């Protein structure tokens, strides 16, 4: 395979990667607190082995540098569910997964599990500002969640939610179930607030994403046609040279 096909294949793989990310955005446009993603590419030069001379030796490829998150806050909508909350600001809730790992989420759709602990919809345990689980007893009726995350009931104070943020949110890695993981230190948020009885909607714009998917699909088809045309041209050239040599 010569440099032309190498370059075309590089662009085709990049387009396919972008298509996958856009499709994932569309699939999650109704997911609570989902933030759209995009792929970051960088062009780089490399020397192809086996190429003699300077022509065609140095070629430019596209390198996948990873996924970036659009952390613009989604619109808040009312649910009237006592255990729902929407976060205003850059904060995340702290969650302990069933395998004991600490993860983070902005999905404030909570429930009380079979053990009486405050949990996420997927079963992770919501943690308080001391890193402990939050137990909701049978006496805890008329639950209220203040803007700073303080949880109280008719029986008195219960706990205060851990609202944390990070120095670089782009280092957060999405792992599914609205959870993120990171090696960064979680910093208590001083600027964020929560609103009880509301949730944050996805920030995906369906029209923009579908339009982008159509454009990317056309680009993929164009590159495929170029590769097919080039391959056909090479085949014909080799055939003609063979007839001349004979």
- Give the N-to-C terminal Cα separation: 25 Å
Overall strand count = 18
Query: Mean pLDDT score, rounded?
Result: 86
Share of helical residues: 25-40%
Domains (count): 2
Task: Give short descriptive properties of this protein.
246 residues; alpha+beta; 2 domains; five-stranded antiparallel beta sheet; three-stranded antiparallel beta sheet
Protein model, in words:
With 246 residues, the protein is of the alpha+beta class. It has two domains: 3-70 and 204-245, no CATH class; 76-200, no CATH class. The protein contains two helices and 18 strands. The strands form seven sheets. Strands 5, 6, 9, 13 and 16 form a five-stranded antiparallel β-sheet that branches. Helix 1 (3-27) runs antiparallel to helix 2 (206-245).
What can be said about this structure in brief?
The protein is built from two helices and 18 strands.
Topology readout:
Elements: H1 3-27, E1 37-47, E2 58-69, E3 76-78, E4 85-88, E5 92-96, E6 102-105, E7 110-112, E8 118-120, E9 125-126, E10 144-145, E11 150-153, E12 156-160, E13 163-165, E14 173-176, E15 179-181, E16 187-188, E17 193-196, E18 198-200, H2 206-245
Antiparallel strand pairs: 1-2, 3-18, 4-17, 5-6, 5-9, 5-13, 7-8, 10-11, 11-12, 13-16, 14-15
